[in-house]
Design the sequence.
């Protein structure tokens, strides 16, 4: 799953896709991008509270839609259907992993994180474990997750942009690379204005666009091609026998072990993603946090139930009109990554309608990049600059450093996305393995075991970073180094694949954190009361955090009973 992507004629050009400038789709996409910029301007922020947690003013339905848009990236809208098209049953690991994770978040994390009541995920790690070093590691990890994850989004936006605007190379760049620069510039532009407040308002709009486009495209393809009459999400099964063993037979494209490793990494990675968990800091109380998760899961499932059907339709149309899907001369990963757009085009649907489906893919990618960049920039501005480097920073200084961090993330993501090392879903999965290996154990143990301490957290996080780095160096880094073939150690790639490394790393990190915590001194009573307050039955007000309740005179909290 981590082989390098061949560049075609100087750029990533999906075969079968009608790459040319199209007036109506271009107007549609540019209008949508203009709308995002306008919303960012209207809800522009001037203080840290709005910049990082939207003033804790978001309701459950709006936050649920924002969770859906924040979550359903180009990997969900484009990459997941593409992965299923190329690898069949193996691709279902992404559907199962990404949806299962939200039950863990709902039951074990959403309300508890809101009761803790901070701004960012590194905020939680630093305050819970009383360590600026742990805060810094979590902040760097958050920034790294945003970078790795966003590369896949930039790739998706650019590939879809080729359909709308054509293969237009500017300043010596290929058409694909020009699209990367253009789309990332728009995204960074509105984020530097809007912060979390504007990003949340935009994400609610972006979810509406992406789900409408995806479902409209699926139903239109299914009905016009005779694949379905009522529910394509169920009726696509009649196609499976015609699509070849690579699509329908289990573990033809990936071993059972790889399926389990990938699925597990996606589950724990989702529950450790900072840009997902920070959404629970934007709501008024823990009840709203729980209902946000329920709504978010419902909104997400609308697309996830539909992606396998889109993959089946696109695979059949590709085989009929373009060429073989599998084998040495089969579909390239660039075409698979735009199978949703390609299917609507091959179905003979009007150009403006295909453009609408393409716009949904761009909206999905931009919505996720927004969440990633807000989380990454807050890690630099709030957790490193304000909490460690300059505790006396003014609101204006914090917002300025946050905006500069967004620009930095945008620049390095753009550079890396000019020649990406893997398909969209694989690129995104690397970030999930990192989150699952380093942050998820800290969140889970920090919330549910009051004896987890600073030394345990530092040992566990360091172990997680090392274990994640090993398969990345083995499989991914060589793709960016000329003359080096990946993987460096095939046996390591088989048993600890980069795309599913958390299967080994996460249990080891749990064991290291628990073992070191048991072997060293327990946390102080204030920290234990902080953890207990996260599970208190007492409702919390909008501006209340567990730290304030635990520090009340006398030290007793309702959770001590």
Sequence:
């Amino acid at each position: 799953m981590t082989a390098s992507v061949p560049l075609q004629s100087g750029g990533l050009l999906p075969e079968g896709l009608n790459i040319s400038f199209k007036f109506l789709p271009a107007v549609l996409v540019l209008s949508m991008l203009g709308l995002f910029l306008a919303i960012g301007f209207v809800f522009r922020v001037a203080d840290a509270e709005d910049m990082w947690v939207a003033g804790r003013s978001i309701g459950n339905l709006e936050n649920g839609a924002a969770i859906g848009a924040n979550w359903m990236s180009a990997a969900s809208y484009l990459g997941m259907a593409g992965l299923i098209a190329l690898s069949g049953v193996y691709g279902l690991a992404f559907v199962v992993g990404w949806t299962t994770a939200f039950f863990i978040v709902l039951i074990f994390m959403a309300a508890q994180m809101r009761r803790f009541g901070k701004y960012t995920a590194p905020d939680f790690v630093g305050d819970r474990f009383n360590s600026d070093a742990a805060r810094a590691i979590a902040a760097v990890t958050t920034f790294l997750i945003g970078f790795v994850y966003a590369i896949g989004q930039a790739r998706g936006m650019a590939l879809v942009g080729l359909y709308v605007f054509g293969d237009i190379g500017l300043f010596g760049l290929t058409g694909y690379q020009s699209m990367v620069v253009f789309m990332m510039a728009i995204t960074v532009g509105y984020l530097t204005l809007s912060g979390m407040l504007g990003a949340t308002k935009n994400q609610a709009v972006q979810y509406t666009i992406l789900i409408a486009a995806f479902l409209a495209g699926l139903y239109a393809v299914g009905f016009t091609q005779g694949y379905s009459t009522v529910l394509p999400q169920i009726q696509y099964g009649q196609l499976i026998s015609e699509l070849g063993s690579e699509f329908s037979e289990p573990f033809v494209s990936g071993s059972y072990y790889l399926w389990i490793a990938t699925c597990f990494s996606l589950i724990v990675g989702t529950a450790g993603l900072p840009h997902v968990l920070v959404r629970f800091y934007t709501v008024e109380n823990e009840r709203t946090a729980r209902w946000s998760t329920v709504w978010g899961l419902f909104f997400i499932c609308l697309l996830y139930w539909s992606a396998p059907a889109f993959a089946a339709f696109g695979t059949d149309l590709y085989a009929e009109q373009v060429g073989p899907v599998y084998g040495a001369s089969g579909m390239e990963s660039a075409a698979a990554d735009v199978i949703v757009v390609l299917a609507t085009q091959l179905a003979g649907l009007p150009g403006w309608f295909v453009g609408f489906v393409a716009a949904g893919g761009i909206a999905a990618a931009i919505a996720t990049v927004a969440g990633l960049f807000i989380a990454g920039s807050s890690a630099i501005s709030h957790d490193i600059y304000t909490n460690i480097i300059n505790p006396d920073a003014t609101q204006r200084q914090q917002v300025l450093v946050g905006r500069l961090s967004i620009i930095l993330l945008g620049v390095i993501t753009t550079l890396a996305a000019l020649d990406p090392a893997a398909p969209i879903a694989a690129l995104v999965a690397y970030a999930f393995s990192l989150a699952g290996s380093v942050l998820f154990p800290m969140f889970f143990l920090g919330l549910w075991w009051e004896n987890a301490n600073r030394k345990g957290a530092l040992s566990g996080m360091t172990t997680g970073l090392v274990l994640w780095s090993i398969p990345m160096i083995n499989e991914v880094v060589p793709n960016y180094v000329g003359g080096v073939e990946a993987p460096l150690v095939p046996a390591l790639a088989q048993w600890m694949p980069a795309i599913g490394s958390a299967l080994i790393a996460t249990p080891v990190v749990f064991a290291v954190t628990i073992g070191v915590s048991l072997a060293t001194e327990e946390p102080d009573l204030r920290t234990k009361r902080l953890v207990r307050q996260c599970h208190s039955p007492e409702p919390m007000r909008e501006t209340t955090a567990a730290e304030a309740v635990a520090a009340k005179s006398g030290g007793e909290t309702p959770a001590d009973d």
Residues 1-10, 557-561 have pLDDT under 50 and may be disordered. DSSP finds 24 helices and no strands in the chain. Residues 175-224 form the longest helix (50 residues).
